[in-house]
Design a protein that fits this description.
The complex is a heterodimer of chains A (about 120) and B (about 240).
Chain A lengths: L2 H27 L7 H23 L2 H5 L3 H23 L3 H21 L1
Helix pairs in contact in A: 4-5
Chain B lengths: L14 H12 L1 H20 L4 H10 L3 H12 L4 H11 L2 H9 L8 H7 L5 H12 L6 H25 L6 H8 L1 H10 L6 H20 L4 H21 L1
The chains are: A mainly alpha (about 120), B mainly alpha (about 240).
């Protein structure tokens, strides 16, 4: 098969799968009875877990757990410290952009300090 | 302020454009992070052998950076197309939960309109509206979601196109700092639930357990953790309320 055609087919298949997953609840539940409180609570808590998972996935590399090295562990520690700092700051200062700038600044400082060590 | 979708205020005249504009403004940090994230997607797609048109179309119709990176990696290893489709489904299975979580807030909107808006659903275009809706701060949730999506989705597509031509170039520490935008921003969103313990504990469990579950069940980490912890907390709530 021509490589370009193969790539287009892969893009089409990925698009179909991804958008079916996005549309699934709309297609399945939009005509159903009002979401029960139990299901709503499940989705609510599952969503908080997903947000925590997304933070983890962005801040901690899977390689760090599978085959840790000093550099990868240091990167993960820095990321966790920065995320924790940003979270703590955000509980006091309800300004996301301020917390974002402060968090990224702390990250750059810690990375530069690590490189100096 | 009410928090459940049933408790949200009714329709307010003329607030649709206001909600859209608020969502658009609030999406600026997301748009900045998407710009650099999808620059990287564009660069990776070029390395994987996609043409600029293919790269751009992929971001338009898939719009899921983790899955796109995984697809490029598998393509480079000449894996069968079925493997690529299966991995895409696993990585993006979280979209089903996200869409289901947002759907109750879109009550009153025609399903066809919601379906048209769903291709712009991503982790960020979910997290930002969801956290705002949970605060009870939005009278027209669907328009707020559209505003967030409109502010970030075109940036992602444009950045993909640009990234194809900018494969190399950014200093490593700068790139690493930009990768921290999303986790920092999401942590500030989660902080809005302070001091309510259960949402914060749920988020913390997601943060701590997902990497461990990933070790045991690769690609299932997020969904398995969300399913188990979500069900446990929902059962606890059910027990508490009787």
């Amino acid at each position: 098969m021509d490589e370009s055609l193969r790539i287009w087919l892969i893009i089409a298949a990925a698009a179909c799968v991804t958008n079916l997953l996005r549309a699934g609840p709309v297609l399945l539940f939009s005509r159903a009875a009002r979401t029960t409180s139990g299901v709503f609570r499940f989705l609510e808590y599952a969503s908080y877990v997903i947000i925590g998972s997304l933070i983890s996935a962005s801040a901690v590399s899977p390689k760090t757990l599978r085959s840790p090295s000093l550099a990868s562990v240091a990167d993960s520690v820095v990321a966790i410290v920065v995320v924790g700092f940003s979270f703590a700051l955000a509980t006091r200062v309800r300004q996301p952009v301020v917390c974002l700038v402060a968090g990224l600044s702390l990250f750059l400082v810690l990375k530069l300090l690590w490189q100096l060590i | 302020m009410p928090r459940s979708p049933e408790g949200l205020a009714g329709v307010m005249a003329g607030s649709g454009p206001t909600s859209f504009a608020q969502g658009f403004r609030d999406s600026i940090p997301v748009a900045v992070s998407f710009f650099f994230l999808f620059l990287a997607v564009g660069g990776a797609s070029k390395v994987a052998g996609l043409t600029p048109l293919q790269s751009t179309v992929m971001s338009v119709v898939v719009f899921a950076a983790p899955a796109q990176f995984a697809i490029f990696d598998l393509m480079a290893r000449q894996r069968p197309w079925l493997d690529l489709v299966a991995v895409t489904a696993l990585i993006n299975s979280r979209f089903f939960v996200m869409a289901a979580a947002l759907l109750p807030y879109f009550r009153g909107i025609q399903p066809a309109r919601i379906l048209l808006a769903m291709p712009m659903l991503s982790a960020s275009t979910f997290a930002l509206p969801f956290m705002r809706f949970r605060q009870g701060a939005e009278a027209r949730p669907f328009y707020y979601y559209l505003g967030v999506a409109a502010g970030s989705y075109p940036v992602a597509v444009a950045a993909t196109s640009l990234g194809v031509f900018l494969v190399h170039g950014l200093a490593d520490v700068f790139v690493q700092a930009l990768k921290m935008i999303l986790p920092v921003y999401f942590s500030t969103l989660l902080a809005r639930e302070w001091p309510k313990p259960r949402p914060l504990v749920a988020g913390l469990l997601g943060f701590a357990l997902t990497p461990l579950v990933e070790l045991i069940a690769p690609a299932f980490g997020m969904l398995a953790t969300a399913g188990i912890v979500g069900a446990a907390f929902a059962a606890l709530d059910e027990g508490r309320h009787g």
